[in-house]
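User: Before I run my own analysis I want an independent prediction to cross-check against. Here's the chain; please return only the structure tokens and, at the end, one sentence I can use as a sanity check.
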Amino acid sequence: MNARSAESHPERRVLAATWQACLQAGHRCLAAGRPDDAIPHLRLANYLQPGHVPIVLTLAIAWLRAGQADKALACFNEGLCLDPAELQAQHGRGLALDALDEREEALAAFRAVTAASRDAWASWQSIADITPDEAERIQAIDQAADALVRLCTSGQPAGRLFTTCAAALLDAHRGRAAATFIAANASRFPDAATVHDCLARARYETGDFREAFRHKQGAVSQRRVQEPERPPARFSPDAAVGALRGIGEILDAAGIPFFLAAGTLLGFYRSGQPLPYDRDVDIGILAGPDQLVDMARTIRNHSSLMLARRARPGDRYFALTFKGIGVDIFLYEPSGDALHCGLGRLAGDVAWQFTPFRLKTASFNGATWPIPDNPERYLAETYGPGWQKPDRGFASVISSPALYQVDPYTRAYYAISRADKALRQGDSVKAAALLRQSPVPVALARPGDEGRLPAEQTDITAPWPEEHLDPGSRN
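Assistant: Structure tokens:
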């Protein structure tokens, strides 16, 4: 073998390897989140055992996860040629086409899968994610939930499928059904902490914030010993500005008036750019009394944006990712002599009230942005009179002076949720600051603790004593 041949076909250097060993090595790399490392193993397996569908599909998945959708599409097409009835190949083909911005072809692929199998929940969810039609979107969300319920009630599915099913029921706005499903199948979930986490979200979605808080506290208390989470990727102010510009262009094209809001305005007003320790950017949409702002439609119709499955037209908060940056979009609506915005429309959910304002433009670091016409008043209402002083532990969902008719257990839910996350990321100072803001005293186990709730409090269906929920509340 000459040097040029070895360079063109590196697989030939290791002909002693078996295709089974190469496939297993590829699977291990994929499981570890290293698709680029998996590809050489899988290419060698494909060389040693050409035309083997499991190898071809696994290689396609590796290409897709490595961000090379064109190569993934070729592999998925090869898999379909080898076995036209292979639904995984058809679903993967849809994912690759979507990554290549071929939306209609991707939808056709996903629809072909669901036509062949009504239990193809992943394809139903993919349809929901990319269809521009709201009726099809809602139908697909419902079908995915129904399919997962069927799969969970037949055979011996893995515990993670129950977690997926609970989330799908909540995406379908079936909060009570989700709570019933979780409680009935608690022993089949991966662990007790996951059960409590799922029930916390289900109770929150139905407006039972007190129960949501107690289940979140139960999840923390029941969490097994584990390694701390990796710290989040460093937030790039420059990338955030790029995302803001991109979102701004989309909103301008749709005729939707927007402005820099909350922490993003705070960062620009202080230093001309997003806060370096932030985790997303905040955009406000100013709705007039006679102006209908259909943010759901704007997001759903744009190929670069993805509408969360739980989102619906008429919502006043939308969370999405754009160019790798988290974006929170809040709809500010007139109500009486004030402006209101919030995370949901249930009584007691997180909501803020502001003095009405109009928009003006302001220049920061050579760029012009729309902002409230009295930014200092807006920031003081959001963060209090000390808004000029940086405070990384402050959370507006827990302690903002602008909070309006928010249930104390809603605030406590966010305090324990964010403190738990901060602790698992190794930031005990921030966790302590968040817990101090809770209106309900919270006991939070540290990562590595093996603390458990008292035995009489581990039944997820039983009421908990008042003393556990709110120590000292009777004093």
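Sanity check: Residues 87 and 113 are 6 Å apart (CA to CA).
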